[in-house]
Every structure is written in structure tokens, then in C-alpha cells.
């Protein structure tokens, strides 16, 4: 309750109460005042003008009527004055002042109109202020909320913008890295040509081209094997060789516009693709000629000129629409170049069939080797003077449940190609040495001959392995003979020589097989310590009807005898041939006339018949 005094002025208690309430308004500038009836004028009594609580009697302001308001106080004064003048009967008025940016600067209350019941008036002020306080705080809260919300929104927006930017950056970085990874995955890192995977992908894409689908053209892969590549690389280094390959690529692209993709599929092998117009039969031969001439012309490297020797294998898409198969076909065609000696070789339907059969056979052989399904047959070697079996040749036999008898030529050729020959070879040697160690009990000078292929004799540990097997089976080295053909020796003469010397020193015998069929049979006889030669059966086949073959055979026997080599003749099929080789003073003969290759048990029983155990005489 507001009290009143007699003069109508507010008591100090009233003023404090109002002041407390006003302070709750929490505005930078407040002023309040009240007036009591004093004639016409409204003498104002202001308690507070500003936050600084500077008490000023505004009467002066009101009277002086300040001109232009320069501060909230001035505004206030001016307004109060206006009020005084224009609305002298106003009882309670509150005024709010706002600055330029609409913030509230101050608030004032004027109690006008002479009012005898000042308590009522004051109560009205209190209510008014209280309502102001609540609206103000609500309003402020709302404003604050709005501001907060706005700030938060704008912060969030900023944050989202940042995130979006970051995401965008990550996306583009990711795309860049994916592109880089794809590139590395598909390219050779040093020459930047495609690699094998890249080539396959490029070919797959080509297969979708309209011209190929509609048959106006086909895709060809030309596989270039740089046969002297490894030697060049050893001479000029890997980096130098990479540079040369890039140079080669540039030269080809300058010479012919027809190559679409260049790929490096191994260190010394490139694969190129081209689209061949179906009706232009000269297109590919011309292109291959151009390629080989670029290779032959030479490439400048530092101050040297380097020439590439290339074999080219060509495969065409009408045989397969499988990219990987197409490259393999080209590869196979290139490998055949080595065998045939031609510079360019094209994959054909026949190759296709052969490949299929080969794959199947290869699969079966692998199984056979793993299951020990291979067996050995033995063909006796007959001493022509005594007509006794002095040895035997071990011949591999493979009877496949589906394919039947597989010829040794096919078997050995395949095993040589896929490297299985080493495994097959050790199988033969192990079993042969095992047999021989038993047979020397029957015939102590018996010699078992084993065929050895190029890959075996050229493998560095061959001699050690053979000697190990001999020791393991306690077979004297002199009872083992290894038959080598000339072709065995050409591939890596040095390693072969070292194996042969080591084994020879231990007492193992050596025979030069298929003598007379190669180019340099005699020269090998000089170079290597062979004990015997096996004259090829071709010579004997026609010897009785063909005087020339007879002459050749005679001279071979002569030379061999002069070189102190034992002469073995193989392929003796008839009595006439037997008589002939006896007359020509061959030492040992082998052939169907004496016996065909036979299984172990039959051979063993025959051998026992030839070498009956000495009769035991019991002396009493
Ligand atoms: P090769 O070393 O010249 O073996 C002699 C071949 O002539 C054998 O053929 C044998 O059965 C055959 N033959 C023997 N006597 C006569 C005859 O009177 N007339 C005719 N026409 N042929 C006769 P096979 O068993 O088919 O072996 C063929 C080739 O396979 C062998 O020729 C040899 O180069 C190779 N070979 C056989 N077994 C092995 C082996 O274990 N390892 C290696 N690396 N090659 C083997
Ligand atoms: Ca042989
Ligand atoms: Ca032979």
C-alpha cells in the first residue's frame, strides 16, 4: 500500500518501493516523476533521472524548454514539457525512449492531474510498472530467444556451409584419388603405357564398339616379344630400358596411326591393339612390317644405338570375345614364333583346338605325377658279341583311364613346356635307380640308361640330386647312364657342362642320344665326355636299301670308334638289320628284334634267366 501524507507528497518509503520496482525494469535510463496539484502549472517532482541516480529537479528543464534533444534526458524533458502543455489533465503516463537501433533507452512515468487520492494514483503507477516489468521481461526473453535462435540458426547455417564445403572438398579429393588409383592400377608405372589389366579393360571397352559388333572390323592384339630385351636391360639398366620402351612407343605412333593402345605386359613384352577393317587383308601384314622395321632401325640411347629383335604374335577377336583369352592367344602365337623361327605368327583355329587338348592333357598329367600314376618300362640293350642283356633303357609309360596310351613324345613335350618335366624326371630317376640297385645283384655290370631332358640337365642342382639318389640306394655310379640329346645341350651349355663333369667324375656314364639327327653331333662328342653314342633309328630304317644311309652309318661308326666311343644302335627290328649291325662291329644294339620295352616284372624274370645264379656245389 502507498501511504499519503498531508501535503500530497510521497513518503520516502513509497519512493523506495517505486524505485525498487523501476530498477527491476533494468533499462539504462529511467526517470520518473510525479506531480501534485498546484494551480495551473504542473510542477513536476522527479526522483530519478538516470542510472547514475543523479537527482535533478526537472522543473528547470521543463521551464527552460530545451530545444533540440541531444540525449535521452533531453528527450525526456522535452516530452514532459509537451505533456505539461498539451495534456495537463493526464493522470498517469509512461513513456519509453528508443535509440536509433531500436533499443530501449529509458522509461519515465509522469503522474499528472491533481489527485487528492494520491494513494490510488500511486497504486496505478505500481501496477503499471509491474505490468511493464512482466511485459518487458517477456518481451526481452522473446527477443533474446529470437536473437539466440537467429544466432544459432546462423551459426548452424555457417556450420552446415562449412560442412558442405568440407564435404565438397572431400568428394573432389576422393574423386581425384580414385582416378589416381585407377590410373595406377591400369598403367605401367615407369612407361605410363597400360599394363595387362589396363589392356584387358581397354579391350573390353573396344568390344562394345559398333563396328566390331556389326562385323565391319575386328580387333587384333599384336604381342611383341623383345627377344634381346633382357640383355639390353642388363647392359643399360632398368631405367634406361624403360626410357627405350617409351621411345619405341613414340616412334611407332609417329610411323603408324593405327595402334590404339600400347601396353607393357611384362618387362620385355608389349601388346598393341588395332582395329582391322574386315575386308582389308593387307592391313595387318603391313602393320606388322612397319612395327618390325621401327624395331630394326634402332633407337638412340645416350650415345649408343640400340636395336630391338622382336617376335610378333597376332590374335584376332573373331576367335574369342574374352579380353584375357585374346591376349593369351597373342602370347601363344608369339611363343610359336620362337619355335618356327618366323617373325610374325598369327593364332589360328588349329592352335585353338591344340590349346584345348593341351590344357586337358596338362591337367591329367599333373594328376598323374601327383598320384604316381606314371610307370616305367624297360627295353634291354644287347651286347652284340655275347648277345646278352648288358643294360636297359628306361622308358616312361602313361596309360590314362580316359585318354588311353599317351605317346611319350606328346607327354615329354608337354612336361617340358609347363615345367613338370623336372618333377617327372626325378620320378623316373628315383624309380630307375631303385630298380638298378636290385638288378646289379643279378648282373653286377648291368647299366640302366635314363633319358634326361634339357630342363633337367640345365638345372643347377641336378648333379647333386642324382648323386644323393645313388648314395641313398647304394647304387655304384658306373651302373647308371644318362642319355642326352643334342637339343638338351644348346639351351644352357655352361650349367649342363658343369652337371655332366661333376657326375662324370663320380663315375656316371653318358650317352649322346639320337646321334646324327642334329647339326653338330660330332662337335658335342669333342666337347663333352660321352662314353657312347646312340645312332638314331632313322638311319637303320633304310640302311639296307639306301646306299647313302649305309655310307653315312658306316662313317659315323668309324669316327665314333676312332674317338673311342662305344657305339649303340637303336631301332633294330629285323634279323637282317641285326646281321648288318653285327657286321659293322657296333657294340650294343637295342630294338624290337631283341625285345620291346616291357614292364618291370617281365624284365626282371627275363634278366634272371640270362644271369642264372651260379650253381652251388656242396663239398662233403
Ligand atoms: P628315345 O630316347 O629315342 O627312345 C627310344 C624310342 O624308340 C622309344 O620310344 C622306344 O619305344 C622306341 N623303340 C625302341 N625300339 C624300337 C624299334 O625297334 N623300332 C622303333 N620304331 N622304335 C623303337 P618311346 O618309348 O615312345 O619314347 C619316345 C621318346 O620319348 C624317347 O626317345 C625319349 O626321347 C622320350 N622319353 C621316353 N622316356 C623318357 C623319360 O623318362 N625322360 C625323358 N626326358 N624322355 C623320355
Ligand atoms: Ca633314349
Ligand atoms: Ca634315341
TrEMBL record:
Please verify whether the record's keywords include Coiled coil. yes
Record CDD domains: bZIP, EAL
Q: Name one Pfam family in it.
A: EAL
Lineage, highest ranks first: Bacteria, Pseudomonadati, Pseudomonadota, Gammaproteobacteria, Vibrionales
Q: Which organism is it from?
A: Vibrio barjaei
Q: Which residues form the EAL domain?
A: 358-611
Is Coiled coil among this UniProt entry's keywords?
Answer: yes
Q: Name the UniProt key words of this record, in alphabetical order.
A: Coiled coil
Signal peptide interval: none
Which residues are in coiled coils?
146-180
Q: What is this protein called?
A: Bifunctional diguanylate cyclase/phosphodiesterase
Amino acid at each position: 500500500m502507498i501511504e499519503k501524507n498531508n501535503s500530497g507528497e510521497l513518503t520516502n518509503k513509497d519512493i523506495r518501493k517505486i524505485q525498487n520496482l523501476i530498477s527491476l525494469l533494468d533499462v539504462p535510463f529511467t526517470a520518473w516523476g510525479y506531480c501534485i496539484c498546484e494551480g495551473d502549472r504542473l510542477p513536476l517532482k522527479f526522483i530519478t533521472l538516470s542510472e547514475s541516480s543523479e537527482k535533478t529537479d526537472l522543473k528547470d528543464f521543463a521551464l527552460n524548454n530545451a530545444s533540440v534533444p541531444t540525449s535521452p534526458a533531453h528527450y525526456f524533458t522535452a516530452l514532459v514539457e509537451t505533456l505539461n502543455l498539451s495534456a495537463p489533465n493526464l493522470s498517469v503516463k509512461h513513456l519509453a525512449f528508443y535509440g536509433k537501433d531500436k533499443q530501449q533507452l529509458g522509461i519515465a512515468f509522469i503522474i499528472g492531474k491533481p489527485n487528492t487520492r494520491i494513494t490510488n494514483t500511486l497504486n496505478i503507477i505500481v501496477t503499471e510498472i509491474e505490468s511493464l516489468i512482466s511485459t518487458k521481461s517477456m518481451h526481452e526473453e522473446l527477443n533474446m530467444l529470437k536473437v539466440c535462435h537467429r544466432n544459432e540458426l546462423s551459426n548452424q547455417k555457417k556450420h552446415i556451409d562449412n560442412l558442405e564445403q568440407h564435404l565438397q572438398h572431400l568428394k573432389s579429393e576422393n574423386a581425384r584419388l580414385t582416378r589416381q588409383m585407377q590410373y595406377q592400377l591400369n598403367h605401367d608405372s615407369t612407361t605410363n603405357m597400360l599394363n595387362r589389366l589396363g589392356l584387358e579393360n581397354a579391350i573390353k571397352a573396344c568390344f562394345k564398339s559398333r563396328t566390331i559388333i556389326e562385323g565391319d572390323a575386328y580387333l587384333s592384339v599384336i604381342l611383341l616379344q623383345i627377344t634381346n630385351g633382357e640383355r639390353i636391360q642388363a647392359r643399360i639398366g632398368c631405367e634406361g630400358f624403360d626410357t627405350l620402351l617409351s621411345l619405341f612407343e613414340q616412334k611407332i605412333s609417329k610411323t603408324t596411326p593405327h595402334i590404339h593402345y600400347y601396353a607393357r605386359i611384362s618387362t620385355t613384352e608389349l601388346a598393341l591393339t588395332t582395329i582391322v577393317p574386315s575386308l582389308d587383308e593387307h592391313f595387318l601384314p603391313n602393320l606388322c612390317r612397319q612395327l618390325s622395321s621401327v624395331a630394326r632401325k634402332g633407337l638412340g640411347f645416350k650415345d649408343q644405338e640400340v636395336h630391338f629383335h622382336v617376335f610378333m604374335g597376332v590374335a584376332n577377336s573373331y576367335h574369342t570375345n574374352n579380353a584375357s583369352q585374346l591376349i593369351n592367344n597373342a602370347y601363344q602365337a608369339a611363343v610359336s614364333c620362337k619355335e618356327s623361327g618366323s617373325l610374325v605368327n598369327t593364332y589360328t583355329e588349329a592352335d585353338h583346338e591344340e590349346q584345348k587338348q593341351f590344357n586337358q592333357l596338362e591337367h591329367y598329367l599333373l594328376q598323374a605325377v601327383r598320384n604316381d600314376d606314371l610307370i616305367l618300362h624297360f627295353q634291354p640293350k644287347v651286347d652284340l658279341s655275347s648277345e646278352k642283356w648288358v643294360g636297359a633303357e628306361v622308358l616312361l609309360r602313361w596309360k590314362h583311364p580316359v585318354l588311353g596310351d599317351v605317346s611319350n613324345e606328346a607327354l615329354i613335350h608337354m612336361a617340358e613346356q609347363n615345367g613338370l618335366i623336372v618333377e617327372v624326371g626325378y620320378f623316373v630317376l628315383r624309380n630307375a635307380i631303385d630298380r638298378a640297385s636290385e638288378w646289379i645283384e643279378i648282373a653286377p655290370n648291368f647299366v640302366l640308361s635314363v633319358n634326361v631332358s634339357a630342363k633337367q640337365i640345365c638345372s643347377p642342382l641336378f648333379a647333386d640330386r642324382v648323386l644323393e639318389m645313388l648314395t641313398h640306394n647304394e647304387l655304384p655310379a658306373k651302373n647308371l647312364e644318362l642319355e642326352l640329346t643334342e637339343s638338351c645341350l644348346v639351351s644352357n651349355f655352361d650349367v649342363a657342362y658343369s652337371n655332366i663333369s661333376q657326375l662324370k667324375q663320380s663315375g656316371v656314364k653318358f650317352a649322346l642320344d639320337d646321334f646324327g639327327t642334329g647339326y653338330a653331333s660330332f662337335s658335342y662328342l669333342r666337347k663333352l665326355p660321352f662314353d657312347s653314342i646312340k645312332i638314331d633309328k632313322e638311319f637303320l630304317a633304310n640302311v639296307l636299301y639306301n646306299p647313302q644311309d649305309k655310307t653315312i652309318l658306316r662313317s659315323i661308326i668309324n669316327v665314333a670308334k676312332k674317338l673311342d666311343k662305344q657305339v649303340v644302335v637303336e631301332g633294330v627290328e629285323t634279323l637282317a638289320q641285326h646281321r648288318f649291325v653285327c657286321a659293322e662291329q657296333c657294340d650294343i644294339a637295342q630294338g624290337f628284334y631283341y625285345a620291346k620295352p616291357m614292364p618291370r616284372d617281365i624284365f626282371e624274370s627275363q634278366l634272371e634267366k640270362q644271369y642264372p645264379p651260379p650253381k652251388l656245389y656242396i663239398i662233403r
